[in-house]
Amino acid sequence: MGNKIIVPFGSQHVALPEPVSFLFETQNEVITDVTVNIGYVHRGIEKAAITKFEYTQLPYLVARVCGLCSITHAGAYTHGIEKLLGIETNKKIDYLRMLVVELDRIHSHMLANGHVAEVVGYENLFMQTFRYREDVMDILERITGNRVQYDYQIIGGVARDIDSETVKFAKEKLLTLKANTEKLIEFFENDYTFGLKTKGVGTISKEMAEKFNAAGPIARASGLATDARAEYDYLPFEEVGYKLQTRSEGDVWARNMVRFDEIMNSIEMCLNILEGIPEGEHKVKVKGRPDGETFVRVEAPRGECFYYLKGNKTKVLDRVRIRVPTYANIPVLKELFVGEKYSDAQAIVLSFDPCMSCTAR
Amino acid sequence: MIQMFIESLKNLVSKPETVKYPFAPSPEPKGYRGTILYNEELCIFCDKCENICPPGAIKFEVVDIESGKKQYNYNPYLCIYCGACVDACPKADEGCLTQAEVRTPVMGESVVKNPKLGYFINGVENPKDVEKKWRELEIRAAKSREDLAAYKKAKRAAAKAAKAKASK
Q1: N or C end: fewer C-beta atoms under 10 angstroms in chain A?
Q2: What CATH number has the domain bearing residue B52?
């Protein structure tokens, strides 16, 4: 038996896109204990939301919780506030919202898979994945007017309408993306060396996922059928061909593949939406002040995102509570490390696709 | 293996995916959310844009208390270009507040100048002063609002007193 050595991983590390710190206690390169610190990017957004900003400004504030799932945050908030104000949206608004939510999911999943490829030693695969990801970024930029901060969902509708030229542009790009993703999937699925680094590494069993209440692709890769899109009724996903994707292996590879399955499903959904966008106004009139309390569950790319809102008939809300998927996945991540090799730690962390700006807010 | 060889050859001759910015221009895509432009002649001074602006980059300052005349001030370096003001503007369709499809030039050695950007930015020469002067303006604008409210209250009280006197 060797000596116990504590190896720090983060808060600054080449493999980490965002600051999170792990202190691994290792013995002969096998992790025996781990300490996690997640509070590096705390910005006090929840407090700001109930002191400095009015409820009409909040979609723009909560969109800045996270750069990757800004659409999800703004969407969850607007859905909640519309529930409080009693606003009925029409079908066109629902469809346009669904379109951007799914495009957001595609680019977030591609980013996650690219990062996993990078840390297991496939720099070129990472570059290829990101190159293909540009297509979906272009579509989002064209639809919403910006590349990262979309500010598309506003209270009572969406910020701008979609024209036929954009629909045509998006369809073409999506078809290219579909062909490119199939190429990627073939590689991820069949490559022998890639499999050595990812198959059987960091396996979460179904029981473990259930016990620690894992969310999103992490739970679905272990065979746990949980998806807020199917469980909570906020947008008509079933109408456009949504299917729940699960894998049973529960390792790093399965988490990647479940993401790819979802990308393919999302592309299918986006094409269906673009095929038949209903007629109607893209905005409805908003009146009144929010009163009472409500909660919203939406499916962010990383799992279930939860919003709790409480209004008091004034312009400033009483409480805005955000619970994000990465926070829900930290306990299972911590448990998972014990008994794994230190060299696999990077791949395990990145396969969880941790989003620290969401978690610390 | 053969597939890989073909792919490599293809990549060798194909065009690069990136643009050579800053040596080559990187144009904005169609429908880009750029600078907010303002037309004073069409403005009805409803303050809706000021109230919704999340970072507070639009401020109306009362310059003449007696007539209640307001001036539009906009800080393009504080703006987050979300377009909420244009959505809120009741005269946006007529062109009072519009969002251009080009981005604001970055603050280098000079401050951007355009009569459509409002009073604040056209009155600042040195880029280093922008932040300080904007902070001063924020305090000044808030105070001018209070002064206007106090003036209106006093005017109402005077009118009430005059009315009471007349009825006696």
Answers
A1: N
A2: 3.30.70.20
